[in-house]
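Backbone-to-sequence.
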């Protein structure tokens, strides 16, 4: 099907429907062309029947489609992200035998499906934030944050983005976090990665924030940052999974 974008009335209607529990099938008025939906120029197409094993798989597929026009055309404010949430809601919050959606996020204002521009909430969008994370970090560094089920915002993803705003050193922070706390053999976080003790994830983001007060981090390479790491972080790099 062709890709559409929600109008303001479409976003409002989608929000109201989600607030009511997203009962039954997705209304065609939230997907098809009309008052709530306008076609995206360029006539991009997606397969609305696609199923995905993870947020990562979903992001790879959708980004490949949007790249045909260019990601710059789809900022956080674009209605395409809520429209995509509507199209794939059966993936993000599958219906059960009773017509309910037990995996539906009940968070106020539905940031899991409708982008919230607040830096502390934008990352909660299951599709849009995943696609933008993939675009910013690349496949290798994005995968640890996105390997959860499509409807799940993983704890590792949340603990990273909850401590950093959408700034210039996000890629550096997460790349370094992946090296210290992520085990690529098991594709899981190391044990007690965020235990609050010296060398934990929270301490890493705090340390990078302090470092940015004295250095232009955008000019430093990852190896240069690693060379400055205090010993408590170095110990975590070599720690067992």
């Amino acid at each position: 099907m062709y890709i559409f974008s929600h109008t303001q009335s479409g976003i409002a209607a989608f929000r109201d429907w989600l607030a009511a529990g997203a009962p039954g099938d997705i209304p065609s008025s939230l997907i098809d062309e009309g008052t709530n939906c306008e076609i995206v120029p360029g006539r991009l197409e997606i397969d609305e029947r696609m199923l995905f094993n993870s947020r990562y798989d979903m992001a790879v597929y959708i980004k490949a489609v949007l790249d045909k026009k260019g990601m710059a055309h789809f900022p956080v404010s674009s209605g395409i992200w809520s429209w995509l949430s509507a199209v794939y809601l059966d993936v993000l919050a599958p219906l059960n035998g009773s017509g309910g959606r037990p995996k539906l996020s009940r968070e106020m204002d539905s940031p899991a499906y409708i982008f919230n521009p607040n830096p502390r909430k934008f990352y909660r969008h299951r599709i849009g934030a995943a696609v933008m994370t993939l675009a910013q970090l690349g496949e290798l560094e994005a995968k640890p944050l996105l390997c959860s089920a499509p409807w799940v915002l993983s704890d590792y993803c949340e603990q990273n983005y909850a401590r950093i705003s959408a700034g210039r050193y996000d890629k550096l922070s997460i790349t370094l976090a992946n090296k210290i706390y992520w085990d690529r053999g098991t594709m899981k976080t190391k044990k007690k990665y965020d235990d609050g003790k010296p060398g934990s994830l929270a301490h890493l983001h705090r340390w990078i924030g302090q470092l940015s007060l004295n250095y232009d981090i955008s000019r430093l390479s990852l190896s240069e940052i690693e060379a400055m790491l205090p010993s408590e972080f170095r110990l975590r790099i070599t720690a067992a999974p």
